[in-house]
Amino acid sequence: MLGSAVERSMAAHHRYRLRRLGRLDALEPGDDGSPWCREAPPPREGCSIDVLIDGAEVLPAIAKAIAGARRSVRMAGWHAAPHFALEQGHPPTILRELLARTAARGVEVRVLLWAGAPFRVFSPARADVRADVRELARDSAARVAIDDRERLLHCHHEKVVVVDDELAFVGGVDLTDLGGDRWDTPQHPARGRLGWHDAGTRLRGPIVADVAEHFDLRWTEVTDEKPKAVPRPAQAGKTTIQLLRTIPEHVYARMRDGAFGILEGYMRSLSSAHELVYLESQFFWLPEIVSLLSEMLREPPSDRFRVVLLLPSKANNGEEDTRGMLAHLADADRDRGRFLATTIDAMTGSTVDPLYVHAKIGIVDDRWLTIGSANLNAHSFFNDSEVNVQICDQTLARSTRLRLWSEHLGLSENEIAGDPTEIIDGLWIPIARREGERRRAAQRREHRLRELTPSSRKLERLLGPMDAIVVDA
Questions:
Q1: Which residue range(s) make up the domain with 121?
Q2: 321, 441: one domain
Q3: Cβ contacts of residue 420 below 8 Å, gap of 6+?
Q4: 282 and 201 in one domain?
Q5: Cα–Cα distance measured from residue 324 to residue 287, given in angstroms and rounded to the nearest whole number
């Protein structure tokens, strides 16, 4: 009861903030029939997008784009390690050297990083970030700035790269090995270390200007320099894409009231779900999302309605929060088989290593797709700076889901191309529960996928909300 009261108080606080800012519509979007957010910038037609899954695909693509830059490189991240290898060749492509070589060719290189945590109980610490910044800029024409304009206990979490105002990357992959090596393949072999599942996007067309302008807004606030106006690229495809952001209020003078487009995007799409909600996230402790999904599980919009989550087996913080929230959804489902929480491990033969799910992906009814830096927690929806993209395209949403499900189920896309509800009932649930039971019984594993059981301990149902209100309130 106490834990539930804390969760309600957090939700009430979020509602109060949005009402005060005149943005309650982000939490309760009107039923106007549009899948797009009212939050600026508007959706952009004539774009193209490549969905990049796992570090082995994301990181070389970013390295190639930076190496081929002709005029400018903008890069913003939560953290960037100077020694980080974007490519695993011989020699590897080291971030600091790549940026230095690019800047030496006369390319304007600007890097904007979060200043780091003011207390050493969080990573990266501010002193460590300052050391990394000095190393990134050492003997280099690349310019590196740090952004310490954040809410207390929160950060700048977005991960974007813009090259020549023509190409942009938006996703969840940090250019660092802090906390784990981001380079991994869709096969996720056990390698004696923590594996890593992640995703990103490569964008072309008018959407690129929105990403660049967002970077320039932050750069100007931090450095007092006003870059030149960003040219709007010509059309590069047939896809309509909208940039979604979280910017807390009172952080930047030019965005005094903040931006809550990511919240609006999720609430619009989830509330209209009919058959499928598929979510991948590092964290899952946002009362508003859990409340909405719980209501839909109690009163499903159709008999075929299913909710599948893919989360890390043990998040690097907030573990009790996630398990407690999963218990809410399990209670709402009442063992009807409409809800499944899963995780994945790295496997080579009989060797099993932990694998960290860091991707931030949402797919609804094979018609809506979002990928970016935002996790499913109050950090990302209210308190950290974040950048996502959303697309309302059945072909792209379905093809992305099939790629992900092929990776997680270990089957070809043809084998899982059938009805999503039948694939969940016939493959996801049996495999995940069987492997969960094998792990609990210390038996030999046969598959990387396994069920992530919700918390049933009363203590954890209290610790989760208590932790969340300290960190997120």
A1: 48-234
A2: yes
A3: 275, 276, 306, 366, 401
A4: no
A5: 11
Distance CA 38, CA 263 (A): 11
Residues 296, 349, single domain; the answer is: yes
Structure tokens at 332: 């709402």
Residue 357 identity (one-letter amino acid): V
* Alpha-carbon torsion angle 59, 40, 365, 168, nearest 10: -20
Task: Give CA torsion, residues 285, 27, 262, 365, to 10 deg.
Answer: 80
User: Measured between alpha carbons, how far is 360 from 43 in angstroms, rounded to an integer?
Assistant: 20
Q: What are the CA-CA distances from residue 269 to residues 27, 30, 285, 366 (Å)?
A: 12, 12, 18, 11
CATH number at residue 81: 3.30.870.10
pLDDT higher than threshold 90 for residue 463: no
Written as one letter, the residue type at 3 is G
**SS3 category, 322:** helix
Closest by Cα among 450, 153, 156, 463 to 322: 463
Reply yes or no on whether the pLDDT at 467 is more than 80: no
Bridge partner residues of 110 (DSSP): 74, 143
- Sign of the CA dihedral 101, 104, 107, 112? positive
DSSP 50-84: EEEESHHHHHHHHHHHHHT-SSEEEEEES-B-TT-
| Neighbour-count burial of 192, counting CB atoms closer than 10 A to its CB (0-12 exposed, 13-18 middle, 19+ buried) | exposed
- DSSP for 152-203, please give it: TT--B---EEEETTTEEEEES--B--TTS-----TT----SS-EEE-EEEEE
Which residues make Cβ contacts (< 8 Å) with residue 146, sequence separation at least 6? 112, 113, 114, 115, 116, 129, 130, 133, 222
Number of residues in the chain: 473
Place of tokens 């940090």: 174
- Residues whose CB is less than 8 angstroms from the CB of residue 403 and which lie 6 or more positions away in sequence, other chains included: 51, 53, 413
State how far the Cα of 163 lies from the Cα of 66, in Å rounded to an integer: 7
Q: Are 113 and 146 in contact (CB under 8 A)?
A: yes
pLDDT tens-place string over residues 130-164: 999 999 999 999 999 999 998 877 899 999 999 99
Alpha carbon distance 426, 422 (integer Å): 6
The dihedrals phi and psi of 35, each to the nearest 5 degrees, come to -85, -10
Q: Are residues 28 and 65 in the same domain?
A: no
CA distance 401 to 391: 13
Cα separation, 133 vs 126, whole angstroms: 10
pLDDT at 471 over 70: no
